[in-house]
Amino acid sequence: MGEQRYLLKPRRLGVDTHQELVVYMRGDCHVCRSEGFNAHSRIQVNVNERSILATLNVIHGDWLAPDEFGLSESAWHALNPQDGERASFAHAPTVESMSAVRAKIYGNPLRDAQFDAIVSDVCKGFYTDVELATFLTACASRGLDHGETVGLTRAMINAGERLDWRREMVVDKHCVGGLPGNRTTPLVVAMAAAEGLVMPKTSSRAITSPAGTADTMETLAPVALSIADMRRVVEQEGGCIAWGGAVSLSPADDILIRIERAIDLDSEGQLVASVLSKKAAAGATHVVLDVPVGPTAKVRSETDARRLAALLCDTGKAIGLAVRAVVTDGMQPVGRGIGPALEARDVLAVLQNEDDAPADLRERSIALAGAIFELGGLVAEGSGTALAAQTLSSGRAWRKFQAICEAQGGMRTPPLAVLTQPVPATREGIVTAIDNRVLARIAKLAGAPAAPASGLDLHVRLGDRVERGQPLFTLHAETTGELAYALEYLETHTDVIRIGEQSDRSSASQ
Amino acid sequence: MGEQRYLLKPRRLGVDTHQELVVYMRGDCHVCRSEGFNAHSRIQVNVNERSILATLNVIHGDWLAPDEFGLSESAWHALNPQDGERASFAHAPTVESMSAVRAKIYGNPLRDAQFDAIVSDVCKGFYTDVELATFLTACASRGLDHGETVGLTRAMINAGERLDWRREMVVDKHCVGGLPGNRTTPLVVAMAAAEGLVMPKTSSRAITSPAGTADTMETLAPVALSIADMRRVVEQEGGCIAWGGAVSLSPADDILIRIERAIDLDSEGQLVASVLSKKAAAGATHVVLDVPVGPTAKVRSETDARRLAALLCDTGKAIGLAVRAVVTDGMQPVGRGIGPALEARDVLAVLQNEDDAPADLRERSIALAGAIFELGGLVAEGSGTALAAQTLSSGRAWRKFQAICEAQGGMRTPPLAVLTQPVPATREGIVTAIDNRVLARIAKLAGAPAAPASGLDLHVRLGDRVERGQPLFTLHAETTGELAYALEYLETHTDVIRIGEQSDRSSASQ
User: What ipTM does this complex have?
Assistant: First the structure.
């Protein structure tokens, strides 16, 4: 069959379709006609030994020559055609692993081999966005049992590279999201490395939040490190804070996360597989997890937190990781800033022991570093936080942090937004509730995390007394469009910070 | 805000992205910069009072002028910009009804108002393909209870036009798919209309099958009738066989069906809502449903068929439809042809009482028409099939069919495929099983239903004795690419027709 097929000349069209692979072909070209391709056909494009599966967009008109086909930026990079190479085409083969996904929809649990096939096909780009959404929704709706969660986690680890630090103990931490401004990672890495532990931290960018650790850290130092770079930084300083996506650890995770973000979905099984696959692939042996609980955090109740913690520990055990979960207060944002640069500023204030450094961010970092010191056997149970506090106040953590930033490519000053606008209290009273989700949404509308200086700065905390007209928070934005859009959203969500007659923390949990 | 926004000139790019609305914008244009748009941003495009939500593709390079933006064919038709009009842009508003979809994923049943909001947003094009897949998968995984099925059905009816034939009784039929070649509709309409019943039939195109009734009928007469055309045909002849999509009945169904097809998913609740919303919107009062059962049909067991039949009858009752379900044999394809034109040929053979007309197609049509005659009170219970047989053999049905085709715009001769290739038996023996799904897949790979002459002609039935080398079926294709691809698939699915030592129908149900 191959020799009968017509060949077309690839043309880079400069169309950014994000991760989706799209090719463009004239409806009247001989390939479309002979193969019977239509708009949205899934087709296989072959150049020498390389091939991709892509979605077809059909062109009417003559802005492509009859012997040409076009490629989106993503398709161009995936296929990587060389000068003079021409492509042949075929109908995309059936993605066989999708039948397991369909079976899951109807209640059949997925087995290890099926997860392997699904994750492998996902990494090869065989799944369309619609099929990825189907897989994620099926797993979220039906739920994943212990065996399935382990199966998915293992499949995700095996689909990518796995780092080996040649150390007996490699520590790591992760926060199970949902709490704006909870930027403890840079602090914990600095503390752990300062005390001699090895902590090669890979972080993700924001999924549905206004900032991920990688977004925040990027305003302080380069984070897109290669594995060789990470190894050098870790050899030298004992720790690093890198973006996980740059080193192809659990590559399926990055693909799945993009769709989870589009549908604003975080399911428990995916969450566990995502977190633990990244940790295991990064070579961690001992992991501390921060699980914030609150009515508007990702985990809403103590019961949910305990179940999730158990799930994380059990799955960790099954794949050979020592995991400790620390359930923390998720009633309100941590620190003041929400958005990459604003959170980075809070991190610097804590490291530098500034008088007005956010106390809550400091305390949480100490609790988590303390748990790592204990889990890692550096100190006896119960003595972790004392050591962590000392590491911070002595300036050891700050010196280590600077050294890590230098080793990653040079320390940066977080940017400031061009536009700021305070949002005042419309009445006097006591702050009785803060809606983390709405606050995060406002920071995102203001431009975070894509525009790193954007977001908001929170001026009040639960229980504070405020006067009418006193600023509750200040919006930061880099474009007027985004600022206006955040303000517009705020008009219909005026109770993002609730002000009542009396301080009543229990009312905040309704 | 509106007056501050920059305006861009629309340009029709001639890119066919199927139903998905896509707009193209230069990454360096002032709109992208000021609004903070990225590739895959969801944006709102406004021209005067009209607006659409679309997905953004960002262009690098200069094939769009700085003051232009591009539109896919679907976006161009939806926005319909007039000469000299310019467009303004904003971030797409949050699609609020998606929070109900997310809640459904986690087990919260959907209420009527939520279905109304979801279906209305779907019809307005507010849902991305990924969000549509999420909705469909959530409904399939969690299932829809009676109240939800009724709620979805009502919402789908209300979202489109609803025909009123000003008759006390309007009959209709529908086959709950899954059985290749089961093309009874044209026969039943002709029989019902010949006996004086009113049967304005709207049919869909193929969802996951090689031919829908509309695809088959289109090879015999025009089917894209307007409501006025349908009314005229029905006034004149008592019946019509039109494509439902041309008359905007239950428009959400057409959008959802495209995604169901992409992920090859047919869930029970969606199926009931799809079938009954179309029937109710088409103005039917009495509906007979054909539910084929077989190991490789859509409904696999008698138990499933009974449950589905009850669900259809109960939901019908709730929305004011008299429904009768006829459970039929779904062990093997009906008739000989699989594919639009090949099935049309079988229909003509039955209507014309030809000696070699497929007996199974004739019998099923008689059973269904008989059920309609009884449900409609034309004859006593038990006497329906006798009348139906008489309607056929007397030639009354054939004369009525020709009259309907003429009224719809003129009778056509179904096309013949350019390429045919017989597929021989590789051994002698008895045909013990036929895999309907694999057979349907082969017909689709050969080009059906997009290429109407394509598909396959089945030469054997369960229990037949075959010699080695005797043709089991013949492939029909319009392009060499599709023929080759069907043959390639066949190489790995050689047991599509199983040949054994003895006739054993029970072994076929394994």
Answer: 0.79
User: Which chain A residues are Cβ-neighbours of B259 within 8 angstroms?
Assistant: 130
Instruction: Give the pLDDT band (50/70/90) at residue A178.
Output: low
The fold of the B171-245+282-408 domain, in CATH, is Pyrimidine Nucleoside Phosphorylase; Chain A, domain 2 (3.40.1030)
> Which helix (H) or strand (E) element contains residue A456?
strand A455-458
Beta carbons of B330 and B178 less than 8 angstroms apart:
yes
Q: Where are the domains of chain B?
A: 2-91, 171-245+282-408, 419-508
Cα–Cα–Cα angle for A176, A177, A178, rounded to 5 degrees: 130
The whole-number average pLDDT for the span B137-158 is 95
In chain B, which residue's Cα lies nearest the Cα of A267? B106
A3 and B CB contact within 8 Å: no
H-run or E-run covering B472: strand B471-477
Whether residue B130 and residue A131 make contact (CB cut-off 8 A), yes or no, is no
Measured CA to CA, the distance from residue A505 to residue A431 in angstroms comes to: 9
**Interface contact B59, partner A, CB < 8 A:** yes
Number of inter-chain CB pairs under 8 A, A vs B: 178
Burial of B335 (0-12, 13-18, 19+ CB in 10 A): buried
Is residue B509 predicted with pLDDT exceeding 50?
no
Distances (CA, A) of B218 to B221, B339, B345, B411: 5, 12, 12, 10
Tell me the C-alpha to C-alpha distance, in Å, between residue B296 and each of A246, B67, B228, B273. 46, 56, 40, 23
Would you call B57 and A16 a contact, using CB atoms and an 8 Å cutoff? yes
Tokens describing residue A337: 């800033």
**CATH number for the B2-91 domain, one of 2.40.50.140, 2.70.98.10, 2.60.320.10, 2.40.40.20?**
2.40.40.20
CB-closest option in A36, A106, A140 to B450? A36
Nearest by CB to A129, from B59, B130, B447: name it: B130
B103 in contact with A, Cβ within 8 Å: no
Q: Least CB-CB distance to A36: which of B16, B73, B479? A: B479
Q: Give the tens place of pLDDT for each residue, B161-211.
A: 888 999 999 999 988 876 788 899 999 999 999 999 999 998 888 867 899
Largest CA distance in chain A: 80
DSSP class of residue B201 equals E
Identified catalytic residue from A116, A172, A254, A266: A266
- Mutation for testing the A interface, residue in B46, B141, B479, B489 having most A CBs under 10 Å: B141
A491: CB partners within 8 A, 6+ apart: none
- What pLDDT score was predicted for residue A3? 39
pTM of the model: 0.81
Query: Which amino acid, B231?
Result: R
User: What number of helices (H) and strands (E) belong to chain A?
Assistant: 19, 19
As given in the structure block, the two tokens for residue B195 are 């006996």
CATH architecture group of domain B419-508: Alpha-Beta Complex (3.90)
- Residue B247 CA, distance from chain mean position: 14
CA distances from A346 to A187, A339, A418, A458, B94 (A): 10, 11, 19, 12, 30
Query: pLDDT tens digit string along A25-73?
Result: 998 888 887 777 888 889 999 999 899 999 999 999 888 998 999 999 9
CATH number of this structure's domain A171-247+264-407, picked from the four choices 3.30.70.2470, 3.20.20.120, 3.40.1030.10, 3.40.50.1820: 3.40.1030.10
pLDDT tier, B56 (very low <50, low <70, confident <90, very high otherwise): very high
Three-state secondary structure readout of B19-48: CCCEEEEECCCHHHHHHCCCCCCEEEEEEC
Catalytic residue positions of B? 266
Residues of B in contact with A296 (CB under 8 A): none
| Chain A residues closer than 8 Å to B73 by CB | 60
d(CA B48, CA B86): 8
